[in-house]
Structures are given as structure tokens and as C-alpha cells.
Design a protein that fits this description.
single chain; about 400 residues; five-stranded parallel beta sheet; 13 helices; elongated
């Protein structure tokens, strides 16, 4: 599956310092990306309906910052993102709207691409749909069967295949939930803890056998389709190798999705799945988490259609630390538009305040757990200083415009 076009990214003299990000599994900040070979990252993609709301955009802009820091350090990056282009929520939306699921998925993926291009998000190296990864999934499930970790549920009509999560010693090491918490969250986020015939309530589906009217593919497991978690496990291992630097996504993916994916991947490869599990915060609107089920969505495409500059939208997101939960209001957009206008006014002048220390501050902030608000504050201070001080530094403006573009992804 094709991704989207890559923005033109200006370059600075490389700063070899590696970024540190918060690891949800260990609870501490960890350096990521150092070592031989490219830095490698997997960020879970969309289920293609109701794309692209600000919650989506918040996640992908956050991990775009990480990729930009790695590039600024002179590192090559291999980045994989999936698309869950066949799954129950997509099929349910297609049925409710009377649109073929394939058509709905294709339209929403294309909309997502245009939103990412507008926000100047660097595309993944590998952009892989669940449908095109089915052979990889089947191969991984077969390996788990050989390891005794996948079984068919005791259901004479639909003996689906399940992963025996509790038999993997590392299971639970990502989210650190007790069993009662895990069961509650599993049921809320796509799991089926109460399904009869499972060996353990926390076991998760890896291959769903065909139901009437549902899409299905022939395989050695029977005609059916992949489960959600195994999709990401298979795609990550196939495109990034047995161990990679960062598994990323929104905090709502911590459990069960990242927990299950990591357990499946580790069970197959017998190595840790990702070195760091990084999670972005949730974006709220009108008093609740922004979500498809609630319908309280602020869509990037609608903001753009109303004439909003995509760089202002990006600044709305960057004004909040990526791990913070926050609520969007119209005031956020007004503040971002005013900030963008001020920044553009400053770089339109022939001279500006010397930029070296400000660029160093931006780099340091982003390397410290992607602290975009601190980076934005540094630019604001430079803009104010440029307005207050009569400077003859003709290179400062060009240097700042380059740094803001390369590091923050904001084209002035």
C-alpha cells in the first residue's frame, strides 16, 4: 500500500545527541535510536473510518517529531505503520452506512493521506494494510501453534483460533494491570473475555473463521480473517525485524493491543518485541475523550476545508506535550493562528535576533521526551527578542526558519 508524499525537509548540521522518551513498560525515560543500523519504529495506524480526527493527528504528529529528531541526529530511520483495513468496527460502519467496506476503507485511507501531507508528517517507510499482510499473519499463527500457544476455541460452529496469552511469561509487562483491571479494559477495547470455550478469559483472537456476509480469505487455518493484535505483530516482525526501538500509539492502545502484540511477537521470536513502548495522550472535546463511538470528532479535513492553515493545526497539537491528555477548544486554534502569524512575521524580516542558542534549546527540548511546548516557547522568545532588539544578524532568520521546519515540521 502506498503511503503519502514526503515533505521536503531542510537539514541542519547534525546534532548526534539521541532522544529520550518515556517508556510505558518501565515507567522511566529511555534513550532510543542509538546503535548499529537504522533507528526502527512501529506506530499503529488507523482503522479507516472517521479519519482524520485530532486524536489521530495528535499521535502521528508526536511520532513525526521523534523521526525528525533521529534525522537531525544523522540517523537513518525505518518506520512502519499499519492500516487495519478489515476489522469489526469498519464492517459495522460500512453496514450502517450502506457503503461497501472496501470502498469505505479506500476513501478514508485516501483522506488520511491528504491530511498527513497537509500536516507535513513524514510518511512511513512501510505502509501496510491488514488485507495485504494476511499471509504474514497466517505464518505467525502457525509458528505460535507449533509453540503450543494458539488453540481453537471449543465452539462447534465457529472454532476460531486464539492466542494463549497467559502462557507467555512476559505477558503483563507492558501495561502492568492486575487481572481484574485487565479483564475490564479487555472487554471495553475489542476483547471478548466472556466468550465460552476459551481457555482463559484474556486469550485473544488471532484468526476469525468466516461468518455469513463477512469478508474472508482461504488459509491453512481455514477460511477467515486476522484478529487485530496479531496483525501488528506480524507486520512489525516482517518489516522491522525481531526487535526494534519503539512501539508507538495512543495511550488507549497500551492494553490490550500493545500488550497482546508484544506477547505474540516475543513468543515467536523469543526476543523482546520493542525496546520502548511510547504512548500519546488522549484528546478530548466537549467534556469527553474524542472518539468515533461518541461522535465528538474534530476532523482535520473539515478544519482545512474551512480555510484553516494546516500549519496552525499542527501548532495546536504541538502546544500540548504528546503524553498529556487535553481538551480541544476553539481558543486552541485561535492561539495557534496568532502564533503562526507572529512567527511568519518574524521570519519575513531581513534580520533577527541571533538564533544559535534558540536552536540548541529547541533541540534539547525535543530530545527530552519530545517536549514540543518547550520548543514552541523557545521560538516565541526568539520572535519577541527579534522584535525588541535591533539586530543586524542576516543569517538568523534563515537559520530559524530552517530549524522550525526541520525540527518542528512547521513550514513558515
Amino acid at each position: 500500500m502506498k503511503a503519502w508524499s514526503r515533505p521536503q525537509i531542510p537539514t541542519l548540521a547534525p546534532d548526534p545527541a539521541m532522544p529520550r522518551v518515556h517508556d510505558s513498560a518501565s515507567g522511566v525515560s529511555v534513550e532510543v535510536g542509538r546503535g548499529e543500523g537504522p533507528a526502527r519504529m512501529y506506530v499503529c495506524g488507523i482503522t479507516p473510518y472517521d479519519a482524520t480526527h485530532l486524536g489521530h493527528a495528535n499521535t502521528y504528529v508526536a511520532f513525526d517529531l521523534l523521526q525528525r529528531v533521529w534525522l537531525d541526529a544523522g540517523r537513518e530511520v525505518i518506520y512502519t505503520q499499519n492500516v487495519t483495513d478489515v476489522d469489526d468496527p469498519l464492517l459495522e460502519r460500512a453496514a450502517a452506512t450502506g457503503v461497501a467496506w472496501e470502498k469505505l476503507a479506500a476513501e478514508q485511507i485516501d483522506l488520511f493521506r491528504t491530511d498527513m501531507e497537509a500536516l507535513r508528517v513524514i510518511p512511513p517507510t512501510h505502509y501496510v494494510g491488514a488485507v495485504e499482510s494476511i499471509d504474514w499473519v497466517v505464518t505467525m499463527v502457525q509458528r505460535l501453534i507449533e509453540a503450543g500457544l494458539v488453540y481453537q476455541v471449543d465452539d462447534p460452529q465457529y472454532p476460531d483460533w486464539y492466542f494463549a496469552s497467559s502462557q507467555v511469561p512476559t505477558f503483563g509487562g507492558v501495561a502492568h494491570l492486575d487481572r481484574e483491571q485487565a479483564l475490564a479494559v479487555f472487554g471495553e477495547r475489542g476483547g471478548d473475555p466472556e466468550r465460552p470455550g476459551k481457555r482463559d478469559a484474556l486469550d485473544c483472537l488471532v484468526w476469525r473463521l468466516e461468518r455469513p456476509g463477512e469478508p474472508a480469505w482461504d488459509s491453512a487455518l481455514g477460511r477467515g480473517r486476522p484478529g487485530w493484535h496479531i496483525e501488528c505483530s506480524a507486520i512489525a516482525v516482517r518489516t522491522l525485524g525481531e526487535e526494534f526501538d519503539v512501539q508507538g500509539g495512543g495511550s488507549d492502545l497500551l492494553f490490550p493491543h500493545h500488550e497482546m502484540s508484544a506477547a505474540e511477537g516475543t513468543a515467536v521470536t523469543r526476543t523482546p518485541f520493542a525496546r520502548v513502548f511510547a504512548h500519546g495522550g488522549m484528546v478530548g472535546y466537549e467534556g469527553e475523550k474524542m472518539s468515533k463511538s461518541r461522535g465528538n470528532l474534530v476532523l482535520v479535513s473539515r478544519l482545512r476545508a474551512a480555510g484553516t492553515d494546516p500549519m496552525a493545526i499542527r501548532l495546536v497539537l504541538l502546544a500540548h506535550h504528546y503524553r498529556a491528555d487535553w481538551e480541544y477548544t476553539d481558543a486552541d486554534l485561535v492561539a495557534a493562528q496568532e502564533r503562526l502569524l507572529a512567527w511568519r512575521g518574524a521570519v519575513a524580516d531581513a534580520t533577527g535576533f541571533p538564533a544559535g542558542s534558540t536552536i540548541a534549546t529547541i533541540r534539547g527540548a525535543l530530545r527530552d521526551d519530545l517536549d514540543a511546548p518547550a520548543a514552541l516557547a523557545a521560538v516565541d522568545a526568539w520572535v519577541a527578542a527579534s522584535a525588541a532588539v535591533d539586530s543586524d544578524d542576516t543569517g538568523a532568520v534563515a537559520d530559524m526558519a530552517t530549524a522550525i521546519d526541520a525540527l518542528l515540521g512547521v513550514r513558515l
